[in-house]
Amino acid sequence: MSSSTEHRTDGRGRTTGSVLSGLAVAVGCVLFLGGFVWGALIYRPYTVPTDSMSPTIAAGARVLAERVDGSEIRRGDIVVFKDDVWGDLPMVKRVVGTGGDKVACCTKQGRLTVNGKPVEEPYLQGSGPASPVGFKAKVPAGQLFLLGDHRNDSLDSRVHLTDGDHGSVPRSAVNARVDARAWPLGSVGVMRRPTSFAALPGGISQPGPVRPITLAVVAGAVLILGGAAYGPLARRGARKRG
Which UniProt key words apply to this protein (predicted)? Predict the structure, then answer.
């Protein structure tokens, strides 16, 4: 009797290879579908309509935003929010100040300051100052001060400085935190948290589970394709041996 794996049976006429291929497909389906369900429960897709977050997020780009409570937001996060004062549509901006912060711009070197400390912002569009127009604001408790990365082309907290909340929005206005770019393909990737805010009280947030979700989906697809391909390949091999 042959000792090769493809000729061993499980007592019901099935070869060991076919059993393993079926198991691979089953596990692959669990990972693949489970990853999509997991992602759908945690993430929401958004299309960024304007250029205000360029170069970090280009106009028309598709992003994945993690559903989070506003209390979880930290400085440096890119958030999706909706505020009646700002308009009826969801907007995407970067948080640079939280309740109690004094946000100002600019230093002689053209930097933004938070509580008097200059902040490096490598994500900004262009090499000019952090804002073409100087400003300063005290962020009320429970509020967030938001700016676009394209400071020359962003309608953000600077435009609303004369409002009652000094241009800030309540944490409760935040719907989600942008965790990754999903489209176009050349820009796909997880958002990096800016380390310049890490030394400030509260630090920076941690990425959501987008990496393990992606790994589960990819691994599931590989197992499904590999398991499904075993049968035709095994039969072809058997014909050649015959």
Answer: Hydrolase, Membrane, Protease, Transmembrane, Transmembrane helix
DSSP state of 22: H
**CATH assignment of 43-207?**
2.10.109.10
Give whole-number Cα distances, 112 to 38, 98, 147, 208, 230, in Å. 38, 14, 11, 27, 59
Reported residue count of the chain is: 242
pLDDT digits (tens, 9 = 90+) for 148-165: 999 999 999 999 999 888
- Residue tagged active-site, from 93, 131, 157, 205: 93
Q: Is 136 one of the annotated active-site residues of the chain? A: no
DSSP state of 240: H
Measured between its terminal Cα atoms, the distance across the chain in Å is 16
The structure tokens listed for 1 are 């009797």
Contact 98, 108 (CB under 8 A): no
Phi, psi of 20 (to 5 degrees): -65, -40
> Which residue has tokens 């990496």?
211
CB 169, CB 194: distance < 8 Å: no
Whether 52 is catalytic: yes
pTM for the model stands at: 0.84
